[in-house]
Specification:
The protein has about 220 residues and is α/β, with parallel strands linked by helices. The protein has a single domain, classed as Aldolase class I (TIM Barrel, Alpha-Beta Barrel). The protein has helices at about 30-35, 45-50, 55-65, 80-85, 105-115, 145-150, 175-185, 200-205, 215-220; strands at about 1-10, 10-15, 20-25, 40-45, 70, 90-95, 100, 105, 120-130, 130-135, 140-145, 160-165, 190, 210-215. It has an 8-stranded parallel β-barrel with strand order 1-4-5-6-9-12-13-14, surrounded by 6 helices. Strands 7-8 form a two-stranded antiparallel ribbon. The longest helix has 11 residues, at about 105-115. The relative contact order is 0.15.
């Protein structure tokens, strides 16, 4: 399944290369809401909240009220997760807060799952250079994505795996890395990071893996209409 993404930063819809370089921006959020209205799931990420430099709550609430979204970015507490779900999100994407002192924070993951329901928790496991990357991909841990997924499986209803090295580069993704993560869990895996073509999306779908696509849609390289 193809899942389009909406990334928010400074009140704009943006696309970044590897989470750093601004490649595209749009102030017409309504147009993207309308364009993605036929999709069963849309991914919404508040990049400012993820990086701890602000938030775009008004825009998040607007999208969550208009589209079937799963929301991530700065979900550091159970209270924040509950707030997003009450705003209309179908699920929350939890990333950096699932890790502490270089390891999976199993206690926090368990509390989150118990509070909001395991089916509404998507664990974000992002990999940079083969290792888990947190805090807006700035901090790299001595932990692989496969190890992280295995430890988190009892507490997450699904996983979002982002291959940071390919994010926003329009050069295709790393299918081997994605397969390895999917093989480490019985939960549904969604892949992101460089997915550009319909062939990649179909190949992932054949493996039972969903595909988040951003840059390829926003640049028009991948037609979705």
């Amino acid at each position: 399944m193809l899942i389009p993404s909406i990334d928010l930063q400074n009140g704009r819809v943006v696309q970044l290369v590897r989470g750093e370089k601004l490649a595209l921006e749009s102030f017409d959020l309504d147009a993207w809401i309308a364009r993605f209205s036929a999709f069963p799931v849309v991914q919404l990420i508040d990049l400012d909240a993820a990086m701890g430099v602000g938030q775009n709550d008004a825009l998040v609430r607007k999208v969550a009220a208009s589209l079937p979204v799963r929301v991530g970015g700065g979900v550091r507490t159970v209270a924040r997760a509950q707030e997003l779900l009450e705003a209309g999100a179908q699920a929350v994407i939890v990333g950096s807060s699932l890790f502490r002192d270089g390891r999976v924070d199993v206690d926090f993951a368990g509390r989150m799952a118990e509070a909001v329901g395991i089916d509404r928790v998507i664990g974000a496991v992002d990999a940079k250079g083969g290792q888990v990357a947190i805090h807006g991909w700035k901090t790299v841990l001595p932990l692989t994505a496969v190890e992280a997924v295995g430890a988190l499986e009892p507490h997450c209803g699904g996983f979002l795996y982002t291959h940071v090295d390919r994010e926003g580069m329009m050069q295709g993704t790393d299918m081997d890395a994605i397969r390895a993560v999917a093989a480490a869990t019985m939960r549904r895996v969604t892949a992101a990071g460089g997915i550009t073509t319909r062939e990649e999306i179909d190949a992932l779908d054949a493996l039972g893996i969903d595909a988040v696509v951003g840059m390829a849609i926003y640049t028009g390289a991948l037609a979705i209409d």
